[in-house]
Amino acid sequence: DVKVTQSSRYLVKRTGEKVFLECVQDMDHENMFWYRQDPGLGLRLIYFSYDVKMKEKGDIPEGYSVSREKKERFSLILESASTNQTSMYLCASTGGTRAGELFFGEGSRLTVL
Amino acid sequence: DQQVKQNSPSLSVQEGRISILNCDYTNSMFDYFLWYKKYPAEGPTFLISISSIKDKNEDGRFTVFLNKSSKHLSLHIVPSQPGDSAVYFCAASDRGSRLTFGEGTQLTVNP
Fold this sequence. Notes:
Chain A is mainly beta. In chain A, 0% of the residues lie in helices and 52% in strands. In chain A, the strands form two sheets. In chain A, strands 2, 4, 5, 6, 9, 10 and 11 form a seven-stranded mixed sheet that branches. In chain A, a hairpin with a 3-residue loop joins strand 4 (31-38) and strand 5. By secondary structure, chain B is mainly β. Chain A binds chain B through residues 4, 31, 33, 35, 40-45, 48, 58, 90, 92, 94, 98-107, and chain B through 4, 6, 9, 32, 34, 36, 41-46, 49, 89, 91, 93, 95-104.
């Protein structure tokens, strides 16, 4: 079974803090993604990566950065957290035979106070 | 600019009846469509997909219909079961693996 593991299920941070969300997949997938899920807005793509050290902006990259130093690991960084970044963050990977079939982690619920 | 829209935030059906979830899209370049299911405190999981060269794809109780002329797809669940209660997301892709998701529909199946 494909396993996508997100390091923290629940985090509470203060405005201005630096936040790291880490994601590891064990299926040697080339492609990894970070989404955020908000009520009424669905899943919105923040950043994605097709290869090590490669990154591309998604639809809502402002306020975020990413790092992919190893194939299996994709980190999302909030340099200075703000209250409007309170959300559910979902990491996903794909490399399978079915185009677009993403495998998601369980999510990280971030609250910024 | 919401390219994939699910206009119904919620849907409630009786166990054993049909559930129909709808999705509309605006981007004519989309050529692959998927449905994901999400339970609380879990990540979404892939459910079923359809290529733009087809108009129907079936997998057990789940059937997806695609109408390219109206840019509309729907997911039918027959018969609905209480375990189907979840949020369902429609998603679309244009040739690559980058997906655009809809807002989601909360399905509740009542025993």
